[in-house]
């Protein structure tokens, strides 16, 4: 009997001839899996050359059996069994309702997420000297080099933005950009009734490689950001002139037509695409869904305003549909907030993906803006993830490190700056070559030290909340994450001091630049803590009986 570890992928491959039927649209295939206690029905998918596949990630150990259902006789009532063995991973990202501001894992434990954000993508016009408007999409080797650097440095989250390569003058790599089959690559024409197998196979290889590095990978689904600008819309597959099904509006975009649940043709095509994508990719435990991009940030652009209810209805509909097909409940984010509150508050918008665009030129102002951002978003009661910081901040690595630590003690996940240049080349990040900062840039060593400190010291951050109100007699910029009378994490941005009322405790100064540690004890009462120097320091305090 075949053995599959818990949370990993069991795959069943079946061969059948669909005759004159379109195997993507006309053939239905699903399978019901049961271990005698639980029952899950998942869709299968066509993978070319008369081959159909079904994927299932068993959530529990034991013997599982399955039976297929299909409108094609050769695929109907196929049965089998496999044994689910102990896990070799901790499974997918989840959110524990007891600690809704932080991420957990499928095995029930917490997960300290260090987020890279939206990975690099081309610019759309007014470039800085180091930015690129037209450069090739990353090769698989480039993406693997990027993901390997993330994994090697404890960075375990990234979100794709492949759609923004539509800003380029040509997209001729069949495997790279759009999930619909090409009819004429040079003319950018697609067949909306068939899917691009090269695209999906590349995506699967990328997900598999990211999983091996321990990186959670956000797959962006609805391509809404690229219907807003004329240049991107000119290359968009939904555009009727490219073989799609949406008409261009008078501004030369597809923005007004995109969020239309009353267009039955539009709904049918989107549903078929999403259902196929979920069938192929949802079994990967490191995947999460970014349904949209910046729709909330763009929704109220003068002259192109869309009713908030229309956008909300669009995402709530597709969030529910994806959840219907995704039996594992992979996390979803709408990705629609920009720098404002989320427009969509449905149960499917499980964490907030947003932006923070404060300049780092004046470090103190940047740190305070970052902290205020955390205060604001903490009250929404969900994990908040920054997709990008301002692109003008590239190369300011010391300030970027301070932003990550400030975000942590303010209750959210920072992301890297917006990088409008290639991902990697010749085994190193393009950023390293542009800024002469070493391979990889120093921020990744900083983030590695950050994650190692939190995990090796056993900081139970998921039980904590932003708690600056506990600080007294603060000198300098100091922010605090705490569970009062149990544990505290203070971040001193540039030296300084702060006073706390404490029970007997142990404390440790951690140098985020070198990983140096200085330990001590404090008796119950008012304790004043002064940073060892004028650089940034982390102070971890815990009860003396812990």
Structure description:
With 546 residues, the protein is α+β, with helices and mostly antiparallel strands. It has 3 domains: 3-85, Sandwich (Immunoglobulin-like); 114-120 and 144-160 and 201-222 and 240-456, Glycosidases (TIM Barrel, Alpha-Beta Barrel), CATH 3.20.20.80; 467-543, Jelly Rolls, CATH 2.60.120. The chain contains 11 helices and 29 strands. It has helices at residues 140-152, 197-212, 230-233, 255-258, 264-281, 295-298, 308-325, 363-378, 397-409, 430-435, 442-456; strands at residues 3-5, 10-15, 29-34, 39-46, 51-56, 62-70, 79-85, 93-94, 104-105, 115-118, 157-159, 180-184, 189-195, 216-220, 287-290, 332-333, 352-356, 384-389, 424-425, 428-429, 465-466, 472-475, 478-483, 487-492, 497-502, 505-510, 517-522, 525-530, 537-543. A 7-stranded mixed beta sheet has the order 1-7-6-3-4-5-2. Strands 21-23-24-29-26-27 form a 6-stranded antiparallel beta sheet. Strands 10-11-14-15-16 form a 5-stranded parallel beta sheet, with helices on one face. α1 (140-152) runs parallel beside α2, α5 (264-281) crosses α7 and α8 packs parallel to α9. The protein is globular. The two termini are 47 Å apart. The model has no long low-confidence stretch (mean pLDDT 92).
């Amino acid at each position: 009997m075949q053995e599959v570890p818990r949370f990993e992928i069991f795959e069943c491959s079946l061969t059948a001839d669909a005759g004159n039927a379109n195997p993507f649209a006309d053939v239905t295939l699903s399978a019901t899996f049961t271990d005698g206690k639980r029952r899950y029905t998942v869709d299968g998918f066509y993978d070319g050359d008369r081959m159909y596949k079904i994927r299932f990630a068993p959530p529990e150990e034991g013997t599982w059996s399955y039976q297929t259902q299909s409108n094609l006789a050769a695929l109907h009532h196929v049965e089998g069994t496999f044994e689910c063995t102990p896990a070799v991973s901790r499974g997918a990202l989840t959110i524990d309702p007891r600690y809704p501001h932080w991420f957990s894992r499928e095995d029930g434990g917490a997960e300290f997420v260090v987020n890279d954000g939206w990975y690099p993508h081309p610019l759309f016009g007014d470039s800085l000297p180091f930015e690129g408007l037209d450069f090739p999409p990353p090769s698989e080797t480039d993406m693997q080099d990027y993901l390997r650097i993330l994994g090697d440095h404890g960075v375990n989250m990234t979100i794709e933005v492949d759609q923004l390569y539509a800003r380029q003058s040509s997209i001729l790599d069949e495997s790279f950009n759009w999930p619909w089959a090409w009819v004429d690559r040079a003319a950018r024409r697609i067949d909306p009734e068939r899917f691009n197998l090269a695209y999906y196979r590349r995506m699967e290889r990328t997900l598999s490689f990211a999983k091996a590095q321990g990186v959670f990978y956000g797959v962006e689904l609805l391509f809404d950001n690229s219907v807003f600008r004329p240049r991107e819309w000119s290359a968009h597959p939904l555009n009727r002139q490219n073989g799609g099904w949406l008409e261009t509006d008078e501004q030369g975009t597809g923005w007004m037509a995109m969020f239309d649940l009353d267009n039955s043709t539009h709904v049918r095509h989107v549903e078929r695409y999403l259902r196929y994508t979920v069938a192929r990719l949802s079994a990967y435990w490191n995947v999460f869904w970014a349904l949209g991009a910046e729709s909330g940030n763009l929704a109220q652009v003068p002259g192109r305003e869309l009713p908030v209810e229309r956008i909300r209805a669009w995402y709530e509909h597709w969030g529910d549909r994806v959840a219907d097909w995704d039996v594992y409940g992979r996390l979803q984010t709408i990705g629609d907030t920009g720098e404002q509150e989320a427009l969509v508050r449905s149960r499917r918008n499980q964490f907030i993906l947003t932006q923070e665009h404060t300049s780092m030129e004046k470090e103190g102002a940047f740190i305070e803006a970052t902290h205020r951002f955390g205060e604001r978003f903490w009250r929404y009661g969900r994990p908040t993830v920054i997709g990008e910081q301002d692109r003008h901040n590239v190369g300011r690595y010391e300030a970027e490190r301070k932003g990550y630590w400030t975000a942590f003690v303010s209750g959210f996940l920072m992301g890297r700056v917006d990088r409008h240049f290639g991902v990697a080349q010749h085994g190193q990040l393009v950023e390293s070559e542009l800024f002469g900062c070493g391979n990889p840039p120093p921020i990744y060593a900083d983030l590695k030290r950050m994650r190692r400190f939190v995990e090796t010291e056993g900081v139970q951050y998921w039980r904590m909340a932003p708690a600056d109100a506990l600080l007294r007699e603060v000198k300098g910029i100091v922010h605090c994450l705490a569970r009062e009378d149990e544990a505290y994490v203070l971040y001193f941005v540039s030296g300084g001091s702060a006073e706390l009322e404490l029970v007997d405790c142990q404390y440790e100064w951690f140098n985020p630049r070198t990983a140096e540690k200085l330990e001590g004890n404090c008796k119950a009462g008012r304790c004043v803590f002064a940073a060892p120097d004028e650089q940034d320091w982390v102070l971890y305090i815990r009860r003396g009986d812990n």
